[in-house]
Amino acid sequence: MPRKLYIYEHCPFCVKAEAIFGLKTLPVERIVLLNDDEATPVRMVGRKQVPILEKDGRFMPESMDIVAHIDAIGTPVLTGKTNPAIGEWIRKTSAPLYRLFLPRAAAAPLPEFATTTARAYFIRNKEASSGAFGDILANSQAEIEFLNHALTELAPAICSPDAVNGVLSVDDIHLFAYLHSMSIIRGIIYPSVVEAYRQALSRRADVPLLDALSA
Q: What is the pTM of this model?
Protein backbone atom coordinates (compact mmCIF):
# COMPACT_ATOMS: atom_id res chain seq x y z
CA MET A 1 0.00 0.00 0.00
CA PRO A 2 1.50 3.39 -0.95
CA ARG A 3 2.13 6.02 1.65
CA LYS A 4 -0.44 8.79 1.92
CA LEU A 5 0.32 12.30 3.08
CA TYR A 6 -2.60 14.46 4.26
CA ILE A 7 -1.83 18.13 3.77
CA TYR A 8 -2.94 21.68 3.07
CA GLU A 9 -1.09 23.18 0.12
CA HIS A 10 -0.49 26.50 1.90
CA CYS A 11 0.85 24.94 5.10
CA PRO A 12 4.63 25.34 5.65
CA PHE A 13 4.72 22.29 7.90
CA CYS A 14 3.13 20.24 5.12
CA VAL A 15 5.72 21.58 2.68
CA LYS A 16 8.45 20.22 4.97
CA ALA A 17 6.87 16.76 4.92
CA GLU A 18 6.29 16.88 1.16
CA ALA A 19 9.84 18.01 0.48
CA ILE A 20 11.54 14.99 1.98
CA PHE A 21 9.68 12.69 -0.41
CA GLY A 22 10.90 14.71 -3.38
CA LEU A 23 14.46 14.90 -2.10
CA LYS A 24 14.44 11.12 -1.54
CA THR A 25 12.59 10.49 -4.84
CA LEU A 26 10.09 8.34 -2.97
CA PRO A 27 6.46 8.10 -4.13
CA VAL A 28 3.67 9.42 -1.95
CA GLU A 29 -0.01 10.09 -2.51
CA ARG A 30 -0.84 13.66 -1.49
CA ILE A 31 -4.36 14.15 -0.14
CA VAL A 32 -5.53 17.71 0.48
CA LEU A 33 -8.08 18.04 3.27
CA LEU A 34 -10.63 20.84 3.42
CA ASN A 35 -9.54 23.36 6.03
CA ASP A 36 -12.73 22.94 8.04
CA ASP A 37 -12.56 19.13 8.04
CA GLU A 38 -11.92 18.47 11.71
CA ALA A 39 -13.26 14.92 11.78
CA THR A 40 -10.65 13.31 9.50
CA PRO A 41 -7.48 14.36 11.35
CA VAL A 42 -9.14 13.86 14.74
CA ARG A 43 -9.99 10.30 13.72
CA MET A 44 -6.38 9.70 12.67
CA VAL A 45 -4.31 11.39 15.38
CA GLY A 46 -6.78 12.76 17.93
CA ARG A 47 -6.55 16.43 16.97
CA LYS A 48 -6.96 18.76 14.00
CA GLN A 49 -3.55 19.09 12.42
CA VAL A 50 -1.61 18.31 9.27
CA PRO A 51 0.59 16.92 7.88
CA ILE A 52 -0.31 13.35 8.68
CA LEU A 53 1.50 10.39 7.13
CA GLU A 54 -0.47 7.18 6.67
CA LYS A 55 1.13 3.81 6.00
CA ASP A 56 -0.49 0.40 6.50
CA GLY A 57 -3.30 1.88 8.59
CA ARG A 58 -0.93 3.70 10.98
CA PHE A 59 -0.73 7.47 11.26
CA MET A 60 2.17 9.79 12.04
CA PRO A 61 1.71 13.53 12.70
CA GLU A 62 4.38 16.22 13.15
CA SER A 63 6.30 17.41 10.11
CA MET A 64 9.84 16.87 11.37
CA ASP A 65 9.00 13.41 12.71
CA ILE A 66 7.80 12.56 9.20
CA VAL A 67 10.96 14.07 7.70
CA ALA A 68 13.20 12.01 10.00
CA HIS A 69 11.20 8.84 9.40
CA ILE A 70 11.31 9.12 5.60
CA ASP A 71 14.94 10.22 5.48
CA ALA A 72 15.90 7.09 7.44
CA ILE A 73 14.58 4.87 4.62
CA GLY A 74 17.57 3.67 2.62
CA THR A 75 20.41 6.17 2.36
CA PRO A 76 19.72 9.45 4.18
CA VAL A 77 19.95 12.67 2.17
CA LEU A 78 19.91 15.19 5.04
CA THR A 79 23.50 14.54 6.05
CA GLY A 80 24.93 18.07 6.16
CA LYS A 81 25.68 20.19 9.21
CA THR A 82 23.26 22.91 10.23
CA ASN A 83 24.10 26.59 10.54
CA PRO A 84 22.57 28.37 13.56
CA ALA A 85 22.49 31.57 11.51
CA ILE A 86 19.82 30.09 9.23
CA GLY A 87 17.50 29.32 12.13
CA GLU A 88 18.14 32.75 13.61
CA TRP A 89 17.31 34.43 10.29
CA ILE A 90 14.03 32.54 10.09
CA ARG A 91 13.14 33.47 13.68
CA LYS A 92 13.95 37.14 13.08
CA THR A 93 11.71 37.41 10.04
CA SER A 94 8.89 34.99 10.84
CA ALA A 95 6.42 37.44 12.41
CA PRO A 96 6.19 39.82 9.43
CA LEU A 97 6.25 36.94 6.96
CA TYR A 98 3.26 35.19 8.45
CA ARG A 99 1.31 38.42 8.90
CA LEU A 100 1.72 39.01 5.17
CA PHE A 101 1.26 35.36 4.26
CA LEU A 102 -2.04 34.55 5.98
CA PRO A 103 -4.43 36.93 4.18
CA ARG A 104 -2.87 36.08 0.82
CA ALA A 105 -3.18 32.35 1.44
CA ALA A 106 -6.79 32.86 2.51
CA ALA A 107 -7.63 34.51 -0.82
CA ALA A 108 -5.79 32.01 -3.02
CA PRO A 109 -7.58 29.34 -5.11
CA LEU A 110 -6.16 26.46 -3.09
CA PRO A 111 -7.93 23.08 -2.74
CA GLU A 112 -8.15 23.27 1.05
CA PHE A 113 -10.41 26.31 0.50
CA ALA A 114 -12.57 24.70 -2.17
CA THR A 115 -15.75 25.44 -0.24
CA THR A 116 -17.00 28.72 1.18
CA THR A 117 -17.21 27.22 4.65
CA ALA A 118 -13.61 25.97 4.53
CA ARG A 119 -12.29 29.40 3.55
CA ALA A 120 -14.45 31.14 6.16
CA TYR A 121 -13.20 28.71 8.83
CA PHE A 122 -9.58 29.61 8.04
CA ILE A 123 -10.23 33.35 7.97
CA ARG A 124 -12.20 33.32 11.22
CA ASN A 125 -9.56 31.33 13.11
CA LYS A 126 -6.52 33.20 11.79
CA GLU A 127 -7.96 36.71 12.08
CA ALA A 128 -8.55 36.03 15.77
CA SER A 129 -4.78 36.13 16.31
CA SER A 130 -3.43 38.17 13.38
CA GLY A 131 -6.03 40.92 13.11
CA ALA A 132 -8.30 41.78 10.20
CA PHE A 133 -6.90 40.53 6.90
CA GLY A 134 -8.10 43.62 5.06
CA ASP A 135 -6.03 45.86 7.35
CA ILE A 136 -2.94 43.70 6.82
CA LEU A 137 -3.33 43.81 3.04
CA ALA A 138 -3.79 47.57 3.08
CA ASN A 139 -0.67 48.11 5.18
CA SER A 140 1.85 45.65 3.76
CA GLN A 141 4.57 47.82 2.28
CA ALA A 142 6.76 48.36 5.32
CA GLU A 143 6.88 44.65 6.11
CA ILE A 144 7.55 43.78 2.47
CA GLU A 145 10.50 46.18 2.53
CA PHE A 146 11.70 44.60 5.78
CA LEU A 147 11.64 41.14 4.19
CA ASN A 148 13.39 42.38 1.07
CA HIS A 149 16.21 43.78 3.19
CA ALA A 150 16.37 40.55 5.18
CA LEU A 151 16.75 38.56 1.95
CA THR A 152 19.86 40.57 1.09
CA GLU A 153 21.25 39.49 4.47
CA LEU A 154 20.37 35.86 3.79
CA ALA A 155 22.06 35.72 0.39
CA PRO A 156 25.69 35.47 1.61
CA ALA A 157 24.76 32.49 3.82
CA ILE A 158 23.62 30.37 0.86
CA CYS A 159 26.58 28.20 -0.15
CA SER A 160 24.98 26.46 -3.13
CA PRO A 161 21.70 26.46 -5.07
CA ASP A 162 21.37 22.79 -4.15
CA ALA A 163 21.86 23.12 -0.39
CA VAL A 164 22.04 26.19 1.82
CA ASN A 165 25.10 24.88 3.68
CA GLY A 166 26.63 23.05 0.72
CA VAL A 167 25.23 19.62 1.68
CA LEU A 168 21.52 18.96 2.23
CA SER A 169 20.50 19.27 5.88
CA VAL A 170 17.42 19.97 7.95
CA ASP A 171 18.19 23.67 7.39
CA ASP A 172 17.06 23.13 3.79
CA ILE A 173 13.76 21.65 4.95
CA HIS A 174 13.05 24.67 7.14
CA LEU A 175 14.36 27.34 4.78
CA PHE A 176 12.63 26.00 1.68
CA ALA A 177 9.28 25.80 3.51
CA TYR A 178 9.81 29.38 4.66
CA LEU A 179 10.63 30.66 1.18
CA HIS A 180 7.67 28.69 -0.18
CA SER A 181 5.37 30.71 2.11
CA MET A 182 7.10 33.93 1.05
CA SER A 183 6.48 33.15 -2.61
CA ILE A 184 2.79 34.11 -2.33
CA ILE A 185 3.67 37.72 -1.40
CA ARG A 186 3.84 40.11 -4.36
CA GLY A 187 6.65 42.64 -4.19
CA ILE A 188 9.26 40.35 -2.68
CA ILE A 189 12.62 40.77 -4.44
CA TYR A 190 14.90 37.75 -4.34
CA PRO A 191 18.65 38.28 -4.70
CA SER A 192 19.98 36.07 -7.50
CA VAL A 193 21.54 33.59 -5.08
CA VAL A 194 18.27 33.21 -3.16
CA GLU A 195 16.28 32.93 -6.38
CA ALA A 196 18.52 30.15 -7.69
CA TYR A 197 18.24 28.33 -4.37
CA ARG A 198 14.46 28.45 -4.05
CA GLN A 199 13.96 27.36 -7.66
CA ALA A 200 16.45 24.49 -7.32
CA LEU A 201 14.90 23.25 -4.08
CA SER A 202 11.42 23.51 -5.56
CA ARG A 203 12.47 21.24 -8.42
CA ARG A 204 14.35 18.77 -6.23
CA ALA A 205 11.62 18.61 -3.60
CA ASP A 206 8.88 18.44 -6.25
CA VAL A 207 6.90 21.16 -4.46
CA PRO A 208 5.83 24.07 -6.69
CA LEU A 209 6.27 27.59 -5.41
CA LEU A 210 3.27 29.91 -5.07
CA ASP A 211 4.55 32.75 -7.26
CA ALA A 212 1.65 32.39 -9.71
CA LEU A 213 -0.79 33.07 -6.85
CA SER A 214 1.08 36.05 -5.40
CA ALA A 215 -0.95 39.03 -4.25
A: 0.95
